[in-house]
Amino acid sequence: MKTVFVMRLLFLALSLAFGIPVTTIQDKGDGHIPSIPVNVKENQRLKLSDIALEVKRIEPEFSEESALGRIRKVQVYNDSLFVLDQYDNLLVFDNKGKYYRQIGRPWKSRSWGSNFSDFTIDDGDGSLYISTSRNDILMFDNQNRSFSISGVRPSRAGIYSFDGQLIVFSYQALEKTSLGLRNQTEMFICSPNNGNIDSLIVTRSYPKTTMFSFMTTYDYISRVEDDTYVYVPVLDPETIVRDTVYRFHDNKLLPALKLKFSNEGDLDDSGVKTIWLAKIWLAGDFVFADYTYKKEKYFYCYDFRTGKGVNTKQGIRDDIFRSGTVEIRPLGNGMFYYSHQKEGTEGERNPDIYIGKFK
Q1: Which residues contact 232 (CB under 8 A, 6 or more apart)?
Q2: Which of residues 10 and 105 earns the better pLDDT score?
Q3: From CA 339, how far away is CA 290, in angstroms rounded?
Q4: Phi, psi dihedrals of residue 338, rounded to the nearest 5°
Q5: How do beta strands 227-230 and 146-149 pair?
Q6: Rounded to whole angstroms, how far apart are CA atoms 342 and 24?
Q7: Residue 277 pairs with which residues in a beta bridge?
Q8: Is 17 exposed, middle or buried (0-12, 13-18, 19+ CB in 10 A)?
Q9: Is the CB of residue 29 less than 8 Å from the CB of residue 22?
C-alpha cells in the first residue's frame, strides 16, 4: 500500500500530460510537487457511498456511568473503542458498544484525571497517552504503569503516537517578540523509552491584528501505511493560504502536495483572506480538506483512483444510514469514523458511532 500511494503522488506530478486536471508547480527550494486544483465556485454533491466501502454502526451503551456528551475523538485499539467527549470524559467500549470502563474520574470531579484535553494510542505497543489541562502528558504503558512526560506543552488537541514515538503539537499565540506579535506551532518528537525529544517549527506568523479563528476538531497527522503526513492550519488573518501537506521523514518536513485554490489570492474589503483552510488530511486513496470561503463552510475530496475532485458546500451526505450531513474523521489504516446524535434523544441515549472503511 505504501508503494502504491507514493506511486500515486508521482502519478499526480505526471498526469497533466494525460489530460487529468492536476498540475505541478515549483515550490521554492523544494522542486516540483503535485498540485491539485480546487474550484471554490463549484458546489457538487458527495455521498458517503461514493467513498465508503462499508460502514458499521455502533450504539454505545447508555447509563449514568457511560453517558457521553458531544464526541470529540474516537480511536480503535484491539476491538475496543476509546471515546473522548466534550466534557473531557474518556470512556472505553467494546466493538459492539458495551461499556467497559472510564479512564480517570468523571468530569464533575476536580480530582486527578479530570480535564483531559486529548489522547492517543500507539498502534504498536498499545501505550496510551493523555494530555491534560495542566499542560502535561500522562503515559500508561502495556504493563499498566503510568508515567508523566514533562518538557512539552501540548495544545488542547494535538498528540499522536505510532512506532514507539509520541508526536506533540504545541501552539503559542500572540507572543511578544522583536518582530511583533507571533503565533507559532511547534512539533515535538518524543521517544518515551529513552527520553529523547526533538522539535520542529511547523508554522510561524506575525499577525497585524489580534483577530484569529479556531476549530472544534483537529487532525494534524495523516498516516498512510508507514508514511506520515502533516498539515497544521494558520488561523489568523495573514494574506497567504497555507495549502501544502508535508511528509514527515527523518525528522524533517518535506513538501508532498498542494491544493491550489482558484481564488487563493482574494481578500475581502478589510484585507483579510477569503479562504481559511482548517485541515487537509490523507486516507487510503483520498485527499480531504475542510475550509471556509467567504465565511461559508466547504468540503473537498480528491480521489487518486479517478484523478477527480468534488467540492461541496453541504459536506458528505450519509446515504447509508440516513444521518444527514456528516463530518468524517480519520482512524488510520484506511478507516474513518463519524458520530450522530438522533434528534431529541440527548440525555436519553448516547450518540451513535459509525466506523467505516474507504474504498
Answers
A1: 169, 185, 187, 202, 203, 220, 242
A2: 105
A3: 17
A4: -155, 165
A5: unpaired
A6: 45
A7: 291
A8: exposed
A9: no
Q: pLDDT tens for residues 281-306?
A: 999 899 999 998 988 999 999 999 99
Contact 168/190 with Cβ under 8 angstroms?
yes
CA distance to 217, 243, 348, per residue, from 13 (Å): 31, 17, 52
Q: In what order do the strands lie in the sheet with 352-358?
A: 52-58, 352-358, 335-340, 329-332
Grid coordinates of 321: 444510514
Could you give the CA distance from residue 247 to residue 282 in angstroms, rounded to a whole number? 11
CB atoms within 10 A of CB 115: 14
Backbone CA torsion sign across 351, 44, 55, 12: negative
Can you say whether the dihedral through the CA atoms of 331, 280, 227, 17 is positive or negative?
positive
For residues 300 and 288, the answer to whether their CB atoms sit within 8 Å is yes
Long-range contacts of 90-98 (CB under 8 A, 24+ apart): 90/116, 90/119, 90/130, 91/60, 91/66, 93/58, 93/60, 93/61, 93/66, 95/58, 96/58, 97/58, 97/59, 97/60, 97/61, 97/353, 98/61
C-alpha cell at 214: 479556531
Distance CA 72, CA 86 (A): 6
Q: CA distances (Å), 118 to each of 74, 85, 114, 216, 228, in order?
A: 10, 10, 12, 12, 19
Could you tell me which residues come within 8 angstroms of residue 56 by beta carbon, excluding any fewer than 6 positions away? 354, 355, 356
pLDDT tens for 149-195 read: 666 666 665 899 988 889 998 888 888 888 888 888 889 998 877 77
Tell me which residue has cell 480528491: 302
Sequence-ordered list of residues with C-beta below 8 angstroms from that of 344, at least 6 positions apart, any chain: none
Task: Please compute, for residue 212, the number of CA atoms within 13 A of its CA located in the half-sphere on the CB side.
Answer: 18
CA 357 and chain centroid, separation: 17
Cell numbers 488542547: residue: 156
Grid cell digits, residue 272: 483579510
One-character DSSP codes across 164-221 = TEEEEEEEEEEEEETTEEEEEEEEEEEETTTTEEEEEEEEEE--SSS-----S----E
